Amino acid sequence: MVMSMDSTECNLIKSEACLSECGKYRYWLSRIWNESGDIGAFVCTNPSKATSLLSDTTLSNCNNLAVQWGWGGFYIINIFAYMATNQNDMRAQADPNGPKNDEAITSISNTTECVVLAWGNGHRSRSNQVLELLSKKKLYCIKRNTGGGFLHPSRIKSEDYAQPVAI
């Protein structure tokens, strides 16, 4: 039996992930707890291990930022859809982007109120392609890196970033 408490906090979170049939690509991942609230999107580098049930550091930090920023949920999309914990493995792929990733980036960004660029430094050619896909959106970042890129959520303490920064 669960002990009775004076106050209990309870939230239901809808958690989804869109994976390719082969299981090598993740096109998007979402956590939604208030569908009537603003929904944001983080555009990161490539998916690692997170799924609709399994979290990783990036997902946890994105979740914390979204809550702090008053969102009702968020999506994570990536400039590359190939799932790899090591970027060298991702770079070694013939098609690290995946056949449906541009469609996912466009579709998700068109349904969200805030798009936060968070893919770090590098990947200049692909970054430019993604920026073109997002050209009609007002874009934000957590913070700019010293190299000019966009701070990745796995590299932060989420409490240090009160609001996303307009680009």
Terminal CA distance reads: 51 Å
Q: Mean pLDDT, rounded to whole units?
A: 93
Q: Low-confidence stretches at least 5 residues in length (pLDDT < 50)?
A: none
Domain tally? 1
Identify the overall geometry.
globular
Beta fraction: 15-25%
Q: How would you write the strand order of the largest sheet?
A: 1-2-4-3-5-6-7
Radius of gyration of CA atoms, rounded to a whole number: 16 Å
Q: Could you tell me the CATH topology label.
A: Rossmann fold
Query: What is the level 1 CATH name?
Result: Alpha Beta
Oligomeric category:
single chain
* Number of DSSP strand runs: 7
Portion in helices: 10-25%
Please give the CATH architecture: 3-Layer(aba) Sandwich
Count up the helices: 4
- Structural class call reads alpha/beta
Q: Which H/E pattern describes the elements?
A: EEEHEHHEHEE
Question: Key terms for this structure?
Answer:
seven-stranded mixed beta sheet; globular; single chain; alpha/beta; 22% helix; Rossmann fold; 167 residues; 7 strands
Explain how this protein is built.
The chain has 167 residues and is of the alpha/beta class. It has one domain (22-166): Rossmann fold, CATH 3.40.50. The protein is built from four helices and seven strands; from the N terminus they run E-E-E-H-E-H-H-E-H-E-E. It has helices at 57-68, 87-91, 101-110, 124-133, and strands at 14-19, 26-32, 39-44, 73-78, 114-117, 139-141, 165-166. The N and C termini lie far apart (51 Å). The model has no long low-confidence stretch (mean pLDDT 93).
